[in-house]
Write a structure and sequence with these properties.
This protein is mainly α. It has a domain at 64-99. 49% of the residues lie in helices and 4% in strands.
């Protein structure tokens, strides 16, 4: 099964695999009531969704490719700690990206 590499910021990707035969990509537009929620309610929904998938994610081991990427990033950071960004820099970059 091939998963999309990126998602639109307005999409919620939900993959359900039953015997490796079923997967669905759901978009926010599929749930019109979500747009009517307050920010606090949306955050609560996100929290509930995250905690519903967290146990499954914890059971999945990182692939060899993911491990290689992490190792390469860590090696780059050790060589050049200045290449890292602060949380504030990251948040600012995300704010600009969303505009």
């Amino acid at each position: 099964m091939r998963y999309p590499e990126t998602f639109n910021s307005l999409q919620i990707a939900i993959y359900w695999e039953a015997a490796g035969k079923y997967s669905a990509l759901m978009k926010l537009a599929d749930f019109p009531g979500v747009h009517e929620l307050s920010v606090q309610e949306k955050l609560q929904l996100m929290d509930e969704l995250w905690f519903s998938v967290a146990p499954e994610l914890e059971l999945r081991a990182a692939s060899d490719e993911e491990k290689s990427k992490l190792d390469a990033r860590w090696t780059e950071f050790i060589k050049n700690p200045a290449s890292a960004v602060t949380l504030e820099q990251f948040q600012e970059k995300m704010r600009k990206h969303r505009r």
